[in-house]
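Notes, Module 5: Reading structure tokens.

Key idea: the token line is not a picture. It is a compressed description, and you learn to read it the same way you learned to read a sequence, by spotting repeated patterns. We will look at two proteins. The first is printed below with its tokens.
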Amino acid sequence: MGLENPIHLIILLMIMLLVFGAKRLPEMGRSLGEGLRGFKDAIHNQAPPASEAPTAAAPPVLAAVPLSTDDQVSSPELTASK
């Protein structure tokens, strides 16, 4: 038993009417619609077109530089005698 039953939708709308009032319901529906429309537009604008799909490029290789013993940081807790 979910919201697919019309009776449940009517009851839900009546509760919303009592909680928010008749003046606020159209404003809420309008702002919800604008938000969903904006979200949908943002999703569609971020996806690259299929003709301009990026090609797989090799990631840049970073060279590993060995540290000398002078460059290493030592902690007093690690160098303390046991």
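Here is the second protein, with the sequence above and the tokens below, as before.
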Amino acid sequence: MMYFSYHPNFEKQFDKLKKKYPSLQKDFDVFCLALEVNPKWYPPNTVQVDWLGENVFLPFFKARKFPLTCMRLANSGLRIVYAYDSENDQLEFVEFIEIYHKNNQDNHNIELIKEHYTGVTDLGS
């Protein structure tokens, strides 16, 4: 079973983007369904975030170029950064960290990840 949680930073960014792009909620729901099937997706659509340091134990992924119904967002550079934790086949956790447009932010916030996830080994705790 897949469980989703949301970092406060993600919620703030998502609400801001949702005001600008009303169909984003529907597109995000479809994205979550796709994550339930394959949380790591496949390159080049999803890449694992590297260079986080030795104290960050969870794998982090950045999704890009995923289907969007909003034509203004389609192929626009929207990015979603999330952590994935699967200790067993029965329980899987995804925590969404960031959602941003690449025109507004160059890259994911490495400091945010390091600050909040150093030493974290289970999102379900």
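Summary for the second protein:
- The longest helix spans residues 24-37.
- The chain has three helices and five strands.
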